[in-house]
Write a structure and sequence with these properties.
single chain, 114 residues, mainly beta, two-stranded antiparallel ribbon, Ribosomal_uL24_CS, structural constituent of ribosome, Large ribosomal subunit protein uL24
């Protein structure tokens, strides 16, 4: 378990971008899909909508706000999520393709540019 996490932290590379659809491949939310809300390159973590819901206790800052428990998405390591290709709708890895001197991400299964 620790070897996997060290591997994720070591590289500081994240294979997904904000707005991509990903599927969770390990953990209690295994099998869930959602859009990437935020990416932290420094920690190699991502936040996905509807995945890893955590409870935060919020205190009211003024009288118009209410205090209470707020449910929100938490961050987790990007190695626990895999990209879903928008064309073939399958879990896939990405490969890089150069086209017109520009680097593009491409699906390994259907070979279409993401």
């Amino acid at each position: 378990m620790l070897k996997i996490l060290k591997k994720c932290i070591k590289g500081n590379k994240v294979h997904v971008r904000r707005g991509d659809t990903v599927a969770i491949i390990s953990g209690k939310d295994k099998g869930k899909r959602g859009k990437v809300l935020a990416v932290s390159l420094k920690e190699s973590k991502i936040m996905v909508s509807g995945v890893k819901i955590v409870s935060k206790h919020a205190k009211a800052r003024n009288q118009s706000e209410e205090s209470g428990i707020i449910k929100t998405e938490g961050a987790f390591y990007s190695c626990k999520a895999q990209l879903v290709c928008p064309h073939c709708n399958q879990l896939t890895r990405i490969m890089h393709v150069f086209e017109n001197n520009k680097k593009h991400r491409s699906c390994k299964k259907c070979r279409k540019i993401i």
